[in-house]
Write a structure and sequence with these properties.
Nucleoside Triphosphate Pyrophosphohydrolase, Transcription Regulator spoIIAA, globular, 13 strands, 8 helices, 2 domains, 279 residues, alpha+beta, four-stranded mixed beta sheet
Length: 279
């Protein structure tokens, strides 16, 4: 096992099993599994379907049309963990959204979803340490696994810093003035095939240096506990396989690279790691 295996695990897709999903103007916005094409036959007023492509037909309001489709599909059992949380659908984050789509439906349509992940770290006499969360046992995805200190999906109605502040307050009781000190350090992207479809996701990553006396406290029930780990211990845990939520491995690998804890003199997969974090 090694760091590179986590890159491979988050990029396990086979695009030959999918067809492009396009907006009415032929903008490519997602991927739909060929095995799911039959499910869309019930909505020919919304989709133009072939064996090579699915295209949205022009609508007065694409968001309304897609919500009607996804609500009906939910009743038919296609979507688990419905959240009533709309995500914007756009080729790039700051592009004007073509429409919004329920979060639970994004993998089915292979829509790029966005999120924020925050590395909470402390400088000590013994070196860098990372605050690590343990996900609650009732979480729909990866229950009981380790997580970044703060992370969350990006709702359509919030800016990135607004969402970061919200998530920091909910997940770790970090006050707004401290949360605003988080430094944007880039993005990580991957294309992961799941039972629900395809996840071509982008995570906006932040580093937040915390005071030595700050202790995160979860307020929304999503995190079972927090622990402060020496960064070398985190690195060894991940390199050996570990028990982190799949995409959190990538966020921490990026942190380790940027802080010189994974370096090209000692890591044989260094170049592949750097390239593999951004697909």
């Amino acid at each position: 096992m090694g760091f590179i295996d986590h890159i491979h695990a988050c990029n396990n897709h086979d695009l030959t099993k999918f067809v492009p999903f396009c907006a009415p103007d032929n903008t490519h916005i997602g991927w739909i599994a060929k095995t799911n094409l039959e499910a869309l036959q019930a909505y020919v007023d919304v989709f133009s379907l072939t064996q090579e492509e699915v295209t949205l037909k022009p609508q007065t309001d694409l968001s309304v049309a897609m919500r009607a489709v996804t609500l009906d599909m939910r009743e038919k059992g296609y979507f688990e963990h419905w959240r009533d949380e709309p995500y914007k659908v756009a080729p790039r984050f700051l592009d004007t959204p073509l429409f919004v789509l329920e979060r639970a439906a994004t993998p089915f349509f292979g829509i790029r979803a966005f999120g924020v992940h925050i590395n909470g770290y402390v400088r000590t006499a013994d070196g860098l340490k990372l605050w690590i969360g343990k996900r609650a046992q009732d979480r729909a995805i990866c229950p009981g696994m380790f997580d970044n200190m703060v992370a969350g999906g990006q709702p359509a109605d919030l800016g990135l810093m607004e969402n970061l502040i919200k998530e920091c307050g909910e997940e770790a009781n970090i006050p707004e003035d401290l949360a605003r000190k988080a430094q944007s350090v880039g993005t990580i992207s991957y294309i992961m095939e799941t039972d629900g479809g395809l996840k071509p996701d982008v995570m906006f990553c932040y580093d937040l240096e915390l005071p030595a006396d700050f202790i995160p406290v979860n307020t929304d029930g999503e995190t079972e506990e927090f622990s402060l780990w020496p960064v070398a211990e985190v690195a060894a845990h991940i390199k050996e396989g570990g028990n982190f939520k799949f995409n959190c491995n990538l966020v921490i690998i990026d942190f380790l690279i940027r802080h010189g804890l994974i370096n090209p003199d000692s890591e044989p997969d260094y170049e592949d790691l750097v390239r593999g974090l951004r697909r």
